[in-house]
Inverse folding.
């Protein structure tokens, strides 16, 4: 028998429960990371500090509470990264009822690869984009114009880029599951390639510092990831079934009948 459809309120309750689990996971990660807040912020600020002049390699805070709240925010950011496996597991568990049995068994690969891709994207931003971006932006300093970056502004800037690159690197994984579900095909992706190229450069201009080099460092991986997504959809996309007459038929769950 086909699965019985549940009321919309049941789905909302399920979503609320899983969001609560995610929030608790982030809070636990925050508490763990807050014990190492100075070391974490020092690590996050390495690309900026390395680009500052040797006689001015520090940051400032201009508000009485700025340093305190900066440590809170960096602990939440680190706690979020620490709780990524839990977040992705809850996401999978929420969408799993709409999948086939063989697809539901992909929970472990989904959690592993989604976490890995997100961390890889953030690492690319940290190790590749940050040094180029800061060298360009701080290159405008002169003898009369000295850089004094603040803790709050830098953390806000770094958080936006780290999360943006993390989400961008999830593109092949999203393509995999949408194509497996039959929602997306490689033909659809290929037909809309030119639109994606435009959107990639618009997103790069909005999320990165206003210099061409840094924008290309985001747009370039976006385009590469898009082509990987097309290939993934081509290889793993759900193939339509045909009956002996050649007509298309709906793919059913093995052993089930229509409700």
């Amino acid at each position: 028998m086909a699965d019985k459809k549940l009321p919309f309120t049941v789905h909302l309750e399920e979503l609320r429960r899983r969001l609560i689990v995610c929030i608790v996971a982030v809070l636990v990660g925050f508490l763990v990371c807050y014990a190492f807040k100075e070391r974490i912020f020092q690590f996050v600020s390495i690309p900026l500090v390395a680009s500052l002049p040797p006689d001015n390699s520090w940051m400032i805070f201009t508000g009485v509470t700025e340093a305190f709240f900066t440590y809170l925010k960096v602990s939440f950011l680190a706690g979020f990264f620490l709780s990524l496996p839990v977040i992705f597991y809850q996401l999978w568990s929420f969408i799993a009822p709409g999948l086939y049995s063989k697809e539901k068994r992909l929970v472990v690969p989904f959690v592993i690869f989604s976490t890995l891709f997100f961390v890889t994207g953030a690492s690319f931003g940290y190790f590749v984009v940050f040094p180029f971006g800061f060298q360009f932006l701080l290159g405008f300093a002169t003898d009369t114009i000295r850089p004094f970056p603040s803790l709050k502004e830098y953390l806000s800037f770094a958080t936006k880029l780290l999360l943006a690159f993390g989400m961008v690197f999830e593109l092949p994984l999203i393509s995999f599951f949408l194509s497996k579900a039959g929602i997306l095909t490689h033909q659809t992706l290929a037909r809309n390639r030119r639109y994606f190229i435009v959107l990639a450069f618009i997103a790069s201009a909005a999320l990165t510092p206003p210099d061409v080099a840094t924008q290309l460092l985001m747009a370039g991986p976006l385009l590469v990831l898009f082509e990987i997504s097309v290939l993934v959809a081509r290889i793993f996309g759900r193939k339509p079934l045909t009956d002996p007459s050649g007509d298309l038929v709906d793919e059913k769950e093995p052993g089930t009948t229509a409700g």
Notes: Residues 8-249 form one domain.
